[in-house]
Amino acid sequence: MNSNIQKLYDKAGKPERIIIGLMSGTSVDGLDVALCKCSGAGRDTIIEILAFETVSYNERFKQEIASVFSRRDADLEKITLLNEWIALQHASIINSCLKKWNLSAAEIDLIASHGQTIFHAPKRLHLLEKFGNGTLQLGDGDHIAVATGIITISDFRQKHIAAGGEGAPLAAYGDFLLFSKKGENRIMLNIGGIANFTYLPGNLNADEIFCTDTGAGNTLMDAYMRKNYPGKYFDEDGHIASRGSINEVLLSALKDHDFFKQGFPKTTGPELFNLPYLEKAKQKSQCGNINHEDTLATLNRFTAETIAEAIKTVTNSRQDFAFFVSGGGMHNSLLMNHIASLLPGSSFKSTAALHINPDAKEAVLFAILANETVSGGNINFGSGKNGIPNVSMGKISFPS
Fold this sequence. Notes:
This protein is an alpha/beta fold. It has two domains: 3-8 and 16-170 and 360-397, Nucleotidyltransferase, domain 5 (2-Layer Sandwich); 171-354, ATPase, nucleotide binding domain (Nucleotidyltransferase, domain 5, 2-Layer Sandwich). It is 38% helix and 20% strand. Strands 1, 2, 3, 4, 5, 6 and 12 form a seven-stranded mixed β-sheet that branches. Strand 1 (16-24) and strand 2 form a beta hairpin. Helix 12 (292-315) crosses helix 13 (333-342). The longest helix is centred in the N-terminal third of the chain and has 25 residues, at 76-100. The chain is globular.
């Protein structure tokens, strides 16, 4: 037997595994690194966060990603080179974290790497008849494995597409395994660059799990901040938006897109929700001279309304849910106040109430997916009717 296969076999059979989960989202602000202790598999999974870091990207990294991110005219050579380069940057971050945590590579069983999404192309957006769903994440798993000396599991989204999904959202899998509770219906709301939520039924019936993107999360607000407030990457706590007024005409134009008329579940990305999207809405509404504060106030409300309306549609306006929130948007109090006002009677807690740091949640979820890759694969995620294929995901890369 190949010695690497033997090592993987031994790790899969251990009562618990130490897994580093990595997440770099569409905001491209930094790499989330979650050191997790995992035991069990499936709905018996138990996970503990031993350490967590968000390592901010430097300006050079952000500029390199921006040169290809969500761009149909991106340079093919640059994409090819970035696939390796991003992996090596992430490997360097991992090695630095291990040094800080006084751990050796030999003490880590697996790395679970999401990679850096640069383009998400579900068929509902590209509309090309002969092509199916597509998505592309850069940050090659082989390079991470070799540079760290740790078995790496990566490229999770491709199996989801191969099995009939859109490659997103993947949160449903980890949410179901980690956060389902018998007797309590839960909605796990994540507000990253794109907003999405998972509905977890209290009867634990996997066929009733529902996970969907709702539209823009922080992506439009962040892009507007970067363009108009040099040196700022987001509207901290909605301070600037709170000084403005919501422009209802622009808000209506922002919501006037076929994406919001499509059924659920569905996925999207900054390929749709970007500054050109905002400019088209301004032209349509004849609001080209709106000031920055009013623009941000309107974008904030746009995110809130599309989240709330999606939840109401999917749940038929029921209110028997416990809401748990994660992602950068949860730190925007103006946004959260808007959402709460649109969903009266609902209470919102962060996933900290479930013993998971909300900023670490996505990185932790990929650690869970990696754990399933090697030790699970037997859980029934349902019949796939809600766009959740019954699969385990991830490609395995050995360090040598």
